[in-house]
Amino acid sequence: MNKQKNYSKERRVKTALTVVFSIIAVVYVLPVVIVLLNSFKLNTFVKTATFALPTGEMWAGFTNFIKGMTFGNYPFLKSVLYTVIITLASTFLICLCTSMAAWYISRVNSRLCKIFYYLFVFSMVVPFQMVMFTLSKTADTLHLNTPYTIPIIYLGFGAGLAVFMFSGFVKAIPMEIEEAAAIDGCGPLRTFFNVVLPMLWPTMISVGILEIMWVWNDYLLPYLVLDRNEYMTISIHIQYLQGSYGAVDLGATMALILLSIIPVIVFYLTCQKHIIKGVAAGAVKG
Amino acid sequence: MKKAKKPEAGTVNSILIRRPIQRLFILFLAPTVAAFCIGFVYPFLKGAYLSFCQFTTTSDAQFIGIGNYIKALKDATFTHAFWYTAMFAVVSLVIINVLAFAVAYVLTMNIKGANLFRTVFFMPNLIGGIVLGYIWSMIFDGILSRYGTSILLDSRFGFWGLIILMCWQQIGYMMIIYIAGLQAVPEDMLEAARIDGANRWQTLWKVTIPNVMPSITICMFLTVTNSFKLFDQNLALTGGAPFTFETAADGTMVSVKQTEMLALNIYNTFYGQSANARGTAQAKAVIFFLLVAAISIFQLRATRSKEVQQ
Lengths: 286, 310
What we know:
The structure holds 2 protein chains of 2 kinds. By secondary structure, chain A is mostly helical.
């Protein structure tokens, strides 16, 4: 009897918690909803009636989106395109190069390798402000200031965490498997791509997700490195629109913010499981 | 017996694996190392050297000793940014961790909809700092404009606004780490506590929390380093506003940005109005790096000692 009472009490507590958390969850998504509402509002009403529905005279239809496309004398889609190029190329380059480097470091394990390994680990604790001035000048000198070459900078500055995560995993792979492959006549290249890489896949996904999240949202590095007259990323574009003095069109900015959030949310909802796993792995190791 | 066998295994592995890989240095290690030198090693060393120089571009540097460091430490805007950042770090450390732990604790209680809640709470993490800053500046200004003020006019609004923003973004992240920690608490320990008559509160304090201590350490340090490195959100939400004027020690007027954090202060010194201040900016950056590195090393020690205990 007592047990049953306890049981029903616990169930009631859990139901109450579900209700409370549902309310919190609604509050949590409100900022995004407010962006959605304001992207359909005429500019003058964004500031005065931020939380109202865009009805009646406030309704702007899709004019904000149309205006936003060419707002600030720079086509927004071009920024999106460059962001996509930079993110995909950097992530691909980091995943490929650092996994190979991590394998080399753990298997060869010479003194030079150890030095580089500790340098990679060291680079993880260095904040970007320490190198930003000299890095942007170096990138300029070497002409790495385009979206097609900036992945090299990302590989250089972001190698630390990736090498660290990969070598942590490579060390856990039993050497016998690679020995067997070598006895069967595999060279290092085939051993790596056909034997080691498939085993590294889960770590590869975690690293890839962390890099995508970092590069896509990064502002300062591309802002300082890229040739600003020609190339913008989404973050730079939005900062440029809002940060410049004079007439800031909030309605159009909200439309662009909404457009930049949508792909992120779609990406999140489709790869949610991997993202959460990758974040947990990266945090625990970093 | 075993000892005699080991060197042999070592040679086999050396011939089969080590040497063939070593021959492919150019392919495996060289690309990463080359990029690493361009993207990190050279800028780092050059930056460290430039902090002792007077310069406006990297080519006209003149060695002047530790003058930049003295200027940096005497700079009222820098010390203000330091204390502001430190205060922000402490407040966000407490609020974010308490809330994230509470959320994670409830979500591991098997309540209905836990997965959906987890999805929702983590979502803000994927939105970039600049975009986050402008979303919230619109919201805060929407509220504050009714009272005839703005987030740019009062440093208290700027501070708490940034705290709210960071909570919104980071609670989900820390929650994920706490959930992983809470799920690893051995079930039989919790059951033993229950059989011994401990109530939920006692179980939480005496069994659960000691067991998730590693996660707590990680999250605490993550929130502190994140606060110290914070840049995008700070720039987008207030950009340092409001400004006040203070008289410096040598009698000149200095404009102090009330809500400017360390990273933004360094950036503004670098790319502000006077290009002559770049040496000072680089010195500030070195001090900033030493600060962040010290926190990270402290963290490494703390997590290591926890690992030994387990």
